[in-house]
Amino acid sequence: MSGEIIGVLGKQPSWGIVLALCLLLMPAIGYAQEPTAPPPPGEVQRVIVVDPLATASGLIDQGNLVQADIILTAYDQASADNRSEDEDRELIFLRARILAGRGQHGDAEDIFRTILAHRPDLVRVRLELALVLFLQKKDGPAEREFQFVAAGDLPDMVRARIRRFLAEIVARKIWRFRVGFSLAPDSNINTATSSEVVDIFGLSFTLDEEARAKSGVGFVLSGGLDFTPVLSRRSRFTLSLDGQRTEYGSKDFDDTIISVSLGPKFLIGERNHIVGFGFTAFRRWFGTSGFNYGFGGELTGSIRLSARVKLDTKLAVQRLRFDSFTARNGTLFSFNTVLQYALSQNSALQGRFGIIREQANLKSQRNTAFRLALTYLRELPYGLTFSGGPEFTYRPFGDAPTVFGDRRIDYRYAFQVSLSKRDIEVMGFSPQIQYLFAQNKSSITLFEYSRHRVRFGLFRDF
């Protein structure tokens, strides 16, 4: 190896390590000495590497991967018995950077993820992970990691680069898939009341067993894809498909829903904010027959307020049709907005607000639902990721009288938590456990219910 290699770092390694390193490098670089003149052609210059980790890092920054690899190999052998945990982690990290520099992005990604599984607070590792994800065009995960990194105290130059990466992700994103499957024990698979008696026209009636809450274990398969081909430099066309199938032992409570949306989207500004509109439709089956369907249009917007803050909104209008209860046919108006904010390099907060107006033909079925939800996400040591938070929905119905005599007003309280193991993958899928508790209070007893649901499954977003 020719040329001079000198490393300087604030923390000095032990002299034993330096001496052992020099002995290991001796066949290649010889003894250190003060050169009095440039070495003759072909002769190797002799130097001492004072701090191998800092030196290797600098060489990787310069693109000198071969020299960095030689130093790390020698350091690994010389210090194997007395390295600290931090030095071990730094050595592994630098080797992953060399892999990334050689184009072995998948291997580098695995190492970066392993490090973050134990130390999710390491910003530099997270940035390198975001970069290799970006280079592999894994845009969904890359966007998430960049947003986490941006929550830190970064130099303006780094922050500007992250904004450019995020804008590029939006500009080039063509395919995205979501897949998950799980077992779901559920205390109330038909979201029915547990009450045995209800009042109708002032008289008490006993509910049939089939009309009350039932428990069961379901198998849930969910998935979706987004296809966004490029129309021009500032415009795209988006096709989104989503579906979910929940199957129980009894076919009467199976639940299937599919939805589709398609239309153009336009990129605006340096940060590639998105504005779009298009056609939407859905179809739902409950039990062994159709339940309802709808079709209409939507207006969407996605605004990157900063590298760590993103706002998504959707305004939609659909015509609703029910297979059996046709009195509920009508028009559905909905507005939803989601604000995502990266709190730190390993935590984020998401707020949701929505208004849904169901303008049914039957006046007593007309209702407006106001929904508010908050979700906190945090990456923990040992490869665990926690997310959870509350949700509240207020849903008043029309003033028209019903067979129950009272105007229906519902209050739904829910809380959901999930825990995933991000450092374990089965064919790219990560294990996750979710728990949901929901309780619906109503002015009409028949519509009151409570529900506990647990989902054990594997999920992947790519």
Describe this protein's structure:
The chain is of the alpha+beta class and 462 residues long. The protein folds into 2 domains: 158 residues, Serine Threonine Protein Phosphatase 5, Tetratricopeptide repeat; 287 residues, Porin, CATH 2.40.160.60. Helix content is 24%, strand content 44%. It contains 8 helices and 17 strands. The strands form 2 sheets. Strands 1-4-6-7-8-9-10-11-12-13-14-15-16-17 form a 14-stranded antiparallel beta barrel. The chain is elongated and about 90 Å long.
Give a quick rundown of the structure.
This protein has 462 residues and is an alpha+beta fold. The chain is built from 8 helices and 17 strands.
Primary descriptors:
2 domains, 14-stranded antiparallel beta barrel, elongated, Serine Threonine Protein Phosphatase 5, Tetratricopeptide repeat, alpha+beta, 24% helix, Porin, two-stranded antiparallel ribbon, 8 helices
